[in-house]
Amino acid sequence: MALETIFSLCSGLAMVGWLGLLFLPKSPVARELLPSVIIPVLLGVTYAYLMFSFRGVAPAEGGFGTLAEVKALFSVDALLLAGWIHYLAFDLFIGAWIVRDSQTHDLRHWLVIPCLFFTLMTGPLGLLIYLLLKRLSGKPLSPKTT
């Protein structure tokens, strides 16, 4: 399968998860099963395929020890795509956690929507905004235990 096709399929699959979180936040399938299990597993399998199938084409100077090494790895399109899929999977997983956590702490969904947008677009910034929202709402930053 062409890398561009894998890119489109994985991006579309992740978007299904995000739309569920946005429009069906009370649905267990949209809140828990799709964005926390099914979609991350499918993306993870695709990530693993790319990482193992193209590891032999990585430049010798590629690695994770320096910025230059990471740049060299990402000069290979398949490994760049694997990096993109990494973002898709983990950002969606964090978005699902935000929705579940916000419901546990009785935060209104309309307040969480901007956090979801920023998590989709900028990952850690969206999580930071959500944690700030929780703090400003007087909710504890740690998970609620029952």
Secondary-structure map with pairings?
Layout: H1 3-23, H2 28-53, H3 67-73, H4 77-104, H5 109-122, H6 124-136
Helix pairs in contact: 1-2, 1-4, 2-4, 4-5, 4-6, 5-6
Helix content: over 70%
Cα(first) to Cα(last) distance is: 47 Å
Q: Point out poorly predicted stretches.
A: none
Mean pLDDT level: 93
Our count of domains comes out at: 1
How many individual β-strands?
A: 0
SSE order: HHHHHH
Principal-axis shape equals elongated
Radius of gyration: 17 Å
Q: What structural class is derived from the secondary structure elements?
A: mainly alpha
Query: Into which percentage range does the β-strand content fall?
Result: under 5%
Sheet having the most strands = none
Number of helices: 6
Structural account:
It is a single chain. The chain is mainly α and 146 residues long. The chain has one domain. The protein contains six helices and no strands. Helix 1 runs antiparallel to helix 2 (28-53). The protein is elongated and about 50 Å long. The chain starts with a helix and ends in a 10-residue tail after the last helix. The model has no long low-confidence stretch (mean pLDDT 93).
List the keywords.
146 residues; 0% strand; mainly alpha; 6 helices
